[in-house]
Amino acid sequence: MITRRTLLATLATTALLQGTSFAYAGNPVQVELIALGHWPVQKSLEPARDLLKTYGNKVVVQEMDAEADDGKAFLARVGLKGHVPLLIVINGAWKFPRPDGSIIEFMSFPSGEANPLGAEGSWSVEDLQYVLNNLTGG
Questions:
Q1: Under CATH, what is the fold of the domain 4-136?
Q2: Which of 8, 88, 99, 132 has the smallest number of CB atoms closer than 10 Å to its CB?
């Protein structure tokens, strides 16, 4: 069952993204990786980091430790608190629509082989590639 809070967050994200062009305008896409520094989180980021490297100068990546002051402050600025092992923020957003209308949330562990714990995450490296391709024109 969808809660009112989830529905409102989804509607707000959709409204924001409808005004966001997916066309590459020549400015590099800004990506912030905020993550815990320990093994399972860092291991799960390897495929995402490898993908990000393929975009060259179309993508600028900044990494922050989620337990350091700057990481905690960043998470607070985007409205998150508590235990957030991993967050990927792209051009200021961490939620994006899929072609089927569902929402990609680049928070916590990814799904599939990228997840060293075998748990099912809510996003995939393919989701990341989809968003980046649309933003970079790639």
A1: Glutaredoxin (3.40.30)
A2: 99
pLDDT at 18 over 90: no
Q: Which residue has the tokens 């099912």?
A: 120
Picking from 29, 108, 115, the residue whose alpha carbon sits closest to that of residue 66 is: 108
Average pLDDT on 68-93 reads 94
The owner of tokens 């490297």 is 53
Provide the whole-model pTM.
Answer: 0.79
Indicate the domain borders of the chain: 4-136
**CA-CA distance, 10 to 65, in Å (whole number)?**
27
pLDDT band at 112 (very low <50, low <70, confident <90, very high): confident
Q: How wide is the angle at C-alpha 39 spanned by C-alphas 71 and 43, nearest 5°?
A: 90
Tell me the two tokens of residue 48. Answer: 């995402």
